[in-house]
Amino acid sequence: MNKPRIERFTFPERMTHWLTAISFVYAGLSGTALWSRKMWWTASVLGGGETIRAWHPIGGVVFALLLALMFRRWATQMKIDADDRRWLAVSHKYAIHDEAGVPESGRFNAGQKMLFWVQSVSAIVLFASGIVLWFPELMPRGLRLIAILTHPLAAVASLGGIVVHVYMTTLVVPGALNAMLRGWVTPGWAASHHAKWFRAVQRK
Amino acid sequence: MQKVAKLIDTTLCIGCKACEVACQQWNDQEFTMGVFNNTYQTMPSLAHNFWNLIQFNELEINGAQSWLMAKYQCMHCADAGCIKACPAPGAIVQNANGIVDFNQDNCIGCGYCITGCPFDVPRLSPTTKKVYKCSLCSDRVAVGLEPSCIKACPTSCLSFGTRDALHHNASKRAEELRADGHAQAGVYDGPGVGGTNVIYVLKHADRPQDYGLPKDPHIPWTVSLWKGPVKWLGNAVFFGGLLTALVHYIKVGPKEAHRDE
Ligand code: HEM
Ligand code: SF4
pLDDT tens, B109-146? Predict the structure, then answer.
């Protein structure tokens, strides 16, 4: 009532995001158990080795389907434009909050767009290689040898991206987490972090 | 502890399949009917409930019809690809005597070992979703008996003993064959996988593929890359990321909204 609010993410957007996040955390944790003996305890937490062997691929497929929904909703907004390219060139300045020469961002800044593309590409690789690992007895040896390498590589890319993403949205940009949970931001927040988007919303 | 081994002198195999039967019986496997495909071979390949197969390789070598019979089973590698690939603690163990043994209680059925094995030996059971293969009768060996296949062999094609002694016998036998005019006779024991504890004497050691054995067995390079550099990269990305975030937070901190409207 007191502070004006701007809607940033609709309810379907937020639901898709969080369901994707949950399935990702499940796939990531259960996958990590197989990644390293030192991480085997995650298997115990998730119900034991045979359980994760059976459910990791299912969780992974759910993740991939949800990400496909997210892709359909956001892909057009995630195109990298000329401002984004300049943004990426000076992203080291963005990182230390020296934003004088950093181009203004639209609804998503170039860093968020990069995360989106890294996740999309790695999800495709995870899905394709995951299917091969899922049914070893049906797959030719050559494919299995490729999958055994590409699946964890794509998982590393995707988990690496998520570490940065979670850090940025929980600790670096106050208000970002609330935007995804409750859906709104303040005008000041929008003007500070997504100026082009803010002006477009104001014009409406 | 001394490494134990099985020696297979392929020149003495008569294709009687006594070893197959003994293996099935000792390990309490039921027999699954196979297909008849115009060979004497019991089935096309190993199965989750069939760990010891005599391959009947019929080919023409130097214009002569040859029938190369070769026993096919787990090779019990020193540097075992299945162990390298397996994610489940305790699912595959390598005993001090060199036997590589699967423990189905700990197996999760991922099939990674099948991909890691250079000899294509482990087989996944469609019913139990666990992998199985020859154990070199670890249960018999533990109480001082020889493996069942060796017990059953009516010729001296198969023998069991310490690896050193058998390796010596194998070299001697190969020498004998060469003296007999088989210039290419030799010993096959997988140096690329640190040596196997199943050793072959082959009349045509220059062409092991003709016996159904890989020419130069080694752990596949994608498996080595996956279990080596890819692990390091992953750890560097993950822990490097966390550390960078911590330093960033302490040094630079949050990005405050700097405009009010
Ligand atoms: C997209 C659908 C996916 C499918 C079908 C899939 C399937 C599989 C399968 C079959 C395995 C072998 C063991 C098992 O079954 O548990 C595996 C391992 C693994 N998965 Fe997935 N997965 C998918 C997505 C993901 C995602 C989203 C992640 C996390 C970012 C992930 C991370 C891993 C890791 C780290 C391993 C272990 C790799 C290793 O042993 O080095 N997977 N996956
Ligand atoms: S199938 Fe079983 S023995 Fe083979 S790698 Fe997986 S857990 Fe290990």
Answer: 999 999 999 999 999 999 999 999 999 999 999 999 99
Which class is A7-98+105-203 in CATH?
Answer: mainly alpha
Q: Indicate which residue's Cα is closest to atom 6 of ligand 2.
A: B110
Both ends of chain B: CA-CA distance in Å?
A: 79
Of the candidates B79, B119, B123, B96, which has an alpha carbon nearest to the alpha carbon of residue B208? B119
**Residues A67, A123: contact at Cβ < 8 Å?**
yes
Instruction: Nearest by CB to B108, from A49, A96, A188: name it.
Output: A49
Q: Of the CATH numbers 1.20.1530, 1.10.287, 1.10.760, 1.20.5, which one belongs to the domain with range B220-254? A: 1.20.5
Which of B110, B123, B125 should be mutated for ligand 2, with most atoms under 8 A from CB? B110
**The residue type at A114:** M
Separation of alpha carbons A46 and A55, rounded Å: 10
Q: How many CB atoms lie within 10 A of CB B6?
A: 27
CA of A78 to the centre of ligand 1 (A): 26
Name the packing angle between helices A141-167 and A11-35 (round to 10°): 120
Size of interface A-B (CB pairs under 8 A): 124
Atom of ligand 2 nearest to the CA of B114: 4
Contact A189, B257 (CB under 8 A): yes
CATH of B4-78+134-211, one of 1.20.1250.20, 3.50.50.60, 3.30.70.20, 3.40.50.620: 3.30.70.20
Percent of chain A with pLDDT over 90: 92
Nearest ligand (C-alpha, residue A63)? 1
Indicate the pTM of the whole model.
Answer: 0.92
Query: Half-sphere exposure (CA, 13 Å, Cβ side) for A69?
Result: 15
DSSP B22-77: HHHHHTTPPPPP----SSS-SSSS-BTTB--EEEEEEEEETTEEEEEEEEES---B
ipTM of this predicted structure: 0.90
Cβ A26 vs Cβ A57: under 8 Å: no
* Whether B249 and A172 lie within 8 Å, measured CB to CB: yes
Residue A28 CA, ligand 1 centroid: distance in Å: 8
Which residues of chain B approach chain A closer than 8 Å at the C-beta? Answer: 85, 87-89, 106, 108-112, 114-115, 120, 124, 126, 129, 220, 222-223, 225-226, 230-231, 233-234, 237-238, 241-242, 245, 248-249, 252, 254-261
* Choice between B258 and B91, residue whose per-residue pLDDT is larger: B91
Residues A66 and A127: beta-carbon distance below 8 Å: no
The residue length of chain A stands at: 204
Sequence-ordered list of residues with C-beta below 8 angstroms from that of A153, at least 6 positions apart, any chain: A125, B230, B233
